[in-house]
Amino acid sequence: MFRGQFVSVTRIAFIIVTLVFLVLAGRELHASIRTASISIVAERIERGETVADDVVAKYASRSVDVVDGHYCRSDIVAAVVTLVLAQLDRQNVNVNYDTWAAAASSARQYLRYALSCMPTNSNFWLRLAAVQSIIAEEPAAVAGMMKRSVVLAPYDQVMILTRFYFWNDFTDATLAAARNALDSDLTTMLKLGDRCRVNATIKEISPQLRPIFDQAWTSVGDSATARFRQRCSK
Questions:
Q1: Residue 12, pLDDT score
Q2: pTM confidence score
Q3: Rounded distance, CA 232 to CA 74, Å?
């Protein structure tokens, strides 16, 4: 009798677990179908292919659907990040301020959502810092985002070189507020970075970053920086 009850309970549990997996699988399939076109357009942009402005705008606007649908799958979230940033990049604040402001606000709002899904994504913290800086460069807020990005990817060369591009554009106040994180990036880049890639990255350094960069260059020493004087093949 007890064995029969045990078999029944086990069978019921198996059925429940199976149904749960079916529901989850169905949701993932539904999400994939609804966002397939978003992923395709994002991949084209990432490959450097030409995508018309109206197409980018159309699919970037679907970030609202992703948020409302609570889609937190990494591939979907990342694809929409590509689209909202592409939409912002294509706006000219001097030509149409209202459209630029709307794109910037949308990008910031979506990046916050992306980070709620993937709080350990260094690139998303960097992108949020960059967007925030062009909306209103609040030194403490932007520095906090940059610090998160550095902590989450302290030795990733791609991320360090990408961050350098933004460090190079920030104001004195932001650079001062994030000085420890900035020093960490510069030191790691000069000590461990690929000689040719770093040389290409540091070809132009902004006036506000120059004294900090020069201090980092001196602090790592000649033994570390001598290699950058070697020529790189094209």
A1: 62
A2: 0.84
A3: 37
